[in-house]
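User: Look at the shape:
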Amino acid sequence: MPTECIADLFGFAPADGRAVVAAFDGGRVTSDAGALLLSRTDRAIGLVGRFAACFREDRSADVVEHSVSSIAMRRVFGIALGYEDLADHDTLRHDPVLAACAAKLAAGRRGCAPLAGKSTLNRLEHAPAGQPGRYHRIGHDGAAIEHLLVEFFLDAHAAAPAEIVLDLDATDDPLHGHQEGRFFHGYYDTYCTLPLHVFCGRHLLAARLRPANIDASAGTAGELARIVGQVRTRWPAVRIIVRADSGFARDAIMAWCEANRVDFLLGLARNSRLAGMIGEPLAAAAAESGESGKPARRYAEFAYATRDSWSRERRVIAKAEQTGDRSNPRFVVTTLGGEARQLYEDVHCARGEMVNRIKECRLDLFADRTSAATMRANQLRLWFAAMANVLVDSLRRIGLVKTDLARATCGTIRLRLLKIGALVRVSVRRVKVAMSSAWPCQQQYREACAALAR
């Protein structure tokens, strides 16, 4: 009897004497089975519930189909899984694994999909600051979200550390429309906004969106006051060091630190006065480099104050370096004691790692996807990316600490552990997510599940 013809069967080149055919008849299949790991991480740290509590609900309860918690979960999980656009969620609203993470498998009223689509998510982002509008009845409390980011950092420690280092940096967020806060920035040579980030190691403590027509350090003293105050409420005896580049060597910031028992180590822009004060070490480095043919460096320190912008003299450490026929003097200003070389090479240079953290937020978690019209909406988008960073970092810190992914980037973790194809079978008693038996990262997945369960 001839084989029955299947109209939507695709034929391909035979393999090893066998016909190769394909059809869209596999049933419920997902490419995001690793979202279950995110869900377990969320339960371990309570991210979605605490984040959702930062939103104000003004919708009528009797007509609400999708809760604020499920909407917030969708945005944070979606970013972690690599979906940067709201339009992606019109397809994801039917994903069985994301529906299981939201504990909402069945279709809603009027037969709508289990999860919210882009229109509902859009209302979350574009809620006005004051009274709720007709279509935007979910508002958010920015101060509560900022407070929560620091709370996650504090909760990540079982005991108070003796010392923490807060890294500050400003970066450009290029814009391609006419968004609020858009200005041309000469240093970056583009139209952009100028977000301020604060990290402690891999922990993101603040992500503040700012217009680009300001100094890189604008608002830093206020951010430090908020963060340091919150940290010292929990850890009153912790030593705090602020570390940043020369854009933050401003008297207002340094004076605030000195008045509040906060140490600092800040880059200092080179000028003719500073260069003249290290003439002898530069000459010695140049002589050594000329004899050896290799770079040479010397270190010096001295008390220094600007002619009119600093309120007092401060300790400055200088690196006098000669590379070939070029001198490369660098300077830092600090309240820290200790040997100059150690402070510069071991403490100051380590701040370069923060650049990798910002790149991770931008490239892997779409923190620069700020294409909404208003600063308020774009700030919320930046906070969504920040929460995705907290979620994936918690997975790495708790679940992957004993695996080869303990120091992996968010993008690598997504590729290795989150983007997993699986067949989903839903029965009366359970949801079975059947992942490939040949998947190469099974051991890391098992270890992460076990560690998160503990």
